[in-house]
Amino acid sequence: MEKRYFTIGMAGHIDHGKTSLTKALTNVDTDRLKEEKERQISIELGFAPLYEDDEIQISVIDVPGHERFIRQMIAGVAGIDLVLLVVAADEGVMPQTSEHLEILRFLGIQNGIIAITKIDRVEEEFIELVKDDILGELSGTVFEDAPFVLVDSLSKKGIEEIKELIIKTLKEKEMRDAKGAFRLPIDQVFSVKGQGTVVRGTVYEGTVEEGQTLKIMPTGLDVKARQIQVHHQPAQKAFAGQRAAINISGVAKEELERGHVLVSSEHFIVSKTLDVAIRVVEELEHIVKQRMPIKLHIGTSEVMGRIVFFDRNVLDEKTDEILCQLRLEEEILTKRGDRFILRRPSPAETIGGGWVIDPRGDKYKFGNQTIEELEKKKAGSPKERIFTALMEAKSLSITELIKRTALDEVKLTEQLMDEEFILYNGKEFTMMTLIHSIEEEIYDRLQDYQQLHPMKSGMNKAELLQTMQKRIPKALLEFVLDNGINNGVFKRKDQFVSISSFISHVPKNWKKRSENMLEALKKDGLKVRNLKDYFSAAGIPESLELDLERFLEDKKLIVLLDEQLAYAGEVFNAAVEKLRSGTGGEFEVGNAKEILDLSRKYMIPFLEKLDSMGFTNRVENKRIWVK
């Protein structure tokens, strides 16, 4: 059975005992900063290992509760699989508890356990009141049926019970996808003397292993995973759901920051314009206006931007899901389905949250038509989602398609049976429409090239692919080209590709001069001048010499002896036959000089050409006829 990895989070009001509960569960004090010790509050995210066996590994994040540290709280919760909502028995539900609940709802956290802490401080009757208070607060949320556990971190009451409940709940839960492309939103960056830069975060999806080449997004910096640690223990790999620290080479600490994302694939989308679906908090303190500044929290990123509505100019009360757009000041890496929180920068308050419909939004007009289009995009039939993903990436594996479309493998496989979709290299899918459009582009490029270079056999295949593979995967280009050759659209000679109907030729305006040049070469027979002299005498410009030389050689109208000398094709062939008929099965240089009446200047290049063309085989001082 494949091992599964999960991260759970603590959430709740300041001083309700989250850090103490974490320590009681894990024996790790997650308040590690001097300032945290002095002020007795959590400022940064704290992490600790909770449990591990052959089936499962569980980590804990202690999330700051103070309102000023809401950014860290969102960064921590965004990567968790289960939340412990901590409520102190002596205080009950507090304003921050409610805000954390809202954030958990917006982030789509489905699994929760309610931990009522500090139970030794109150009478049993008061605990029942706290329970009722919590039940009222949880009514209508995904946590309304969440189990309650009474704990006291100092005396360890209820600690084993809550630990067993966490393990049982997560053993019944599917872990994040470890098979897709690796993604780790960075929440901490630091350096270790002698080791260099280290980043830390929760692996959202995929797997990373030591030595793997990765990218920092959205900057695009290439790095390598030198070492991996999971809870201070060296590891060869880190999996989706695990907390991991990765020592990376190729980048300085100063080039990184919280909010950057470490990925293994270039298929992830970087964008500043997001089409989104949002819901707002139960009670908005201030009106949200069209194009109002907002602060977006997504993964570990915190980005300023503006909210753009298409069906209203003001949002002043709780409403159903709203389809709108976020236009950001900086590029971020995100994908369809990613959850986020929206906050007002000033005065600070949580506005709402939602999910990304399309990470590559466009500019739309205000009005119902745009809302209708966004509705379609949001609902997006399975086929439409596949179509959109392939139009963006051109070619995707089944794993990447699952990520892009949010379809499960069974549903996705059903859709891919449609004849519009093609599995073209045994592992990646594309579409017939894309194949046709890429083929047309190749055709146009070859046609343009052939007009500029009519004497060449075609365009060098490597050059052709290089001009297109920044936008289209090389494997797909290779497939379309080979498919076109098989279907008679293109043809290939050695490394050169052309349109099937193309025949290389000398342009009309140079045809007569090239004929004159050939006639002069024939006239001189075997005692020719430098080939450049013939080009010059015929009035052929130097810029055309190389193309014309290769064309004449390809058509066998000339035979190049070396870089300077060439014979007319028929003169060369006649000389070969004369030498063959004047010798037996073998001959020496002296025999050849007598028969052809040539000096060493011509004789040696001529004989070496015979060797290279396979007419003869040299053995010491003799040459033996082969063909």
UniProtKB/TrEMBL annotation:
Native organism: Bacillus salipaludis
Gene3D superfamilies in the record: 1.10.10.2770, P-loop containing nucleotide triphosphate hydrolases, Translation factors, Winged helix-like DNA-binding domain superfamily/Winged helix DNA-binding domain
Q: Could you tell me which residue ranges the Tr-type G domain spans?
A: 3-176
Instruction: List locations, semicolon-separated.
Output: Cytoplasm
A Gene Ontology molecular function term of the record: GTP binding
Pfam (any one): WHD_3rd_SelB
**Keyword Ion transport part of the UniProt annotation:** no
GO BP term, example: selenocysteine incorporation
**Protein's recorded name:** Selenocysteine-specific elongation factor
